[in-house]
Every structure is written in structure tokens, then in C-alpha cells.
Amino acid sequence: MKIQNFTDLDAWKHAHKLFILIYKLTKEFPKSELFGFTSQLRRAALSISSNIAEGFGRQSPKEKIQFYFISLGSVLEVQNQIIAARDVGLINSEEFNSAWNQTVTTQKVINGLIRSIRSSMP
Questions:
Q1: Across residues 11-28, what is the average pLDDT?
Q2: Buried (b) or exposed (e) across 64-78, using 16+ Cβ within 10 A?
Q3: Distance between CA atoms of residues 116 and 1, nearest Å
Q4: What pLDDT is stored for residue 26 in this prediction?
Q5: Averaged pLDDT, 76-95
Q6: Higher per-residue pLDDT: 35 or 108
Q7: Sign for the pseudo-dihedral over CA of 94, 97, 100, 101
Q8: Cβ proximity of 86 and 93 under 8 Å
Q9: CA-CA distances (angstroms) from residue 23 to 3, 19, 67?
Q10: How large is the average pLDDT for residues 16-34?
Q11: 7-120 domain in CATH 1.20.1440.60?
Q12: What is the sign, positive or negative, of the torsion defined by CA atoms of 93, 102, 107, 73?
């Protein structure tokens, strides 16, 4: 399959799946967390796929990789936040494991995308 749009990238698909998972998890957070934890976690999760999309639109491989690295940083931010959410009782172990596993998968696929671009550079 020829990649014609950022939505064709496996990295974007996994990042989007993670965002949907985080969005659904945070719907259950207390209303008092709406402008705190909920907002921060959703923004970080959305940042992953957004930076993949922005990187896709860049012309030079170096620029693409820069945005993909930013998305990796956002994956780590989400990992930190779901650890905190678990530790303060906002999510249970099963929810944590599901979100954690999706972050790890997303991270691996983004790393693969970066390696692929690097290998095609002169």
C-alpha cells in the first residue's frame, strides 16, 4: 500500500488508538480534574498523532524526524501521567495496563518510522 496521507502511517494509527483510549479513560475522571489531569492527559495524547501528522507534511527527512521525536516525547509524557493517574487512584490496574501497552506499541512503531527515514537518508 502506498502511503498517501498521514492517516496511512501505522505510527499515526497507533497514536490515534492511544488517544481514543485515553479520551475514554479520562471521561470517567472526576469533574474536579477536568482542567487538570483530564485536560493535560488528553493534550499529551493528542500531541502524539498531531506531531506525526505535522512531520508527515514536512519535506526534508531531517524535519520529519524532528517532529517524530517530539511525538516520542509526548508518549513518555502520557506514560508518566498514566503512572500518576494509577497511583492516585484515577485508573485501576487493568486500565493502566491497557493504556501502558498501547503507549509501548506506539513508541515502538514511531521508532521504526524514524529508523526507516534515517535508513533512506544519504
A1: 96
A2: bbebbebbbebbebb
A3: 16
A4: 94
A5: 96
A6: 108
A7: negative
A8: yes
A9: 27, 6, 23
A10: 92
A11: yes
A12: negative
Which pTM was predicted? 0.94
* Residues with Cβ within 8 Å of residue 2, at least 6 apart in sequence: 8
Cell of 79: 506514560
Sign of CA dihedral 35, 67, 8, 113: negative
- d(CA 103, CA 76) in angstroms, rounded, equals 8
C-alpha span between 46 and 64 (Å, rounded)? 18
Instruction: State the virtual CA torsion across 82, 88, 89, 91 in degrees, nearest 10.
Output: -10
- Residue spans per domain, the chain: 7-120
Nearest C-alpha neighbor of 99 from the set 22, 10, 16: 22
Average pLDDT of the segment spanning 54-71:
95
- How much is the average pLDDT of 45-64? 96
C-alpha cell at 95: 486500565
